[in-house]
Amino acid sequence: MSTPNVNPHPYVGMWVTKDGYIRHELLPNNRYDEARGNRKSAYQGRYTILGDHIEYVDDTGFTADGDFRDSVLYHAGMVLYRVK
């Protein structure tokens, strides 16, 4: 039995602030891992993407959201760029 080829959502991957201090990794299993400075995995949780809107719920229950516009993620006052 073979596993079907499932393509991850186009927004899956690493997103970083211009200075590289904040890094959001959107994983293909609808989980995310956020690093801040030298603190790897500062926040972790799940996300849902509807169109160009993302909703975050971290593992403590804190919620946040953001929007993707022109290949840029605007999230909680931050601007993150895709790392390819």
Describe, in plain words, how this protein is organized in 3D:
The chain is mainly beta. It has a single domain, classed as Lipocalin (Beta Barrel), CATH 2.40.128. It contains no helices and eight strands. The protein has strands at residues 13-17, 22-26, 31-36, 39-50, 53-58, 63-69, 72-75, 78-83. Strands 1-2-3-4-5-6-7-8 form an eight-stranded antiparallel β-barrel. The mean pLDDT is 93.
Which features would summarize this protein structure in a list?
84 residues, mainly beta, Lipocalin, 8-stranded antiparallel β-barrel, 0% helix, Uncharacterised_Atu4866, Putative ligand-binding protein with streptavidin-like fold, Atu4866-like_sf
Number of helical segments with 4 or more residues: 0
Q: Per the principal axes of the C-alpha atoms, what is the gross shape?
A: globular
Helix content: under 10%
Q: Could you say what the CATH topology is called?
A: Lipocalin
Q: Give the integer mean of the pLDDT values.
A: 93
The CATH class name reads: Mainly Beta
InterPro entries: Atu4866-like_sf, Uncharacterised_Atu4866
Protein name: Putative ligand-binding protein with streptavidin-like fold
Topology of helices and strands:
Blueprint (H helix, E strand, L loop, with lengths): L12 E5 L4 E5 L4 E6 L2 E12 L2 E6 L4 E7 L2 E4 L2 E6 L1
Antiparallel strand pairs: 1-2, 1-8, 2-3, 3-4, 4-5, 5-6, 6-7, 7-8
Pfam families: Atu4866
Organism: Paenibacillus cellulosilyticus
Protein name: Putative ligand-binding protein with streptavidin-like fold
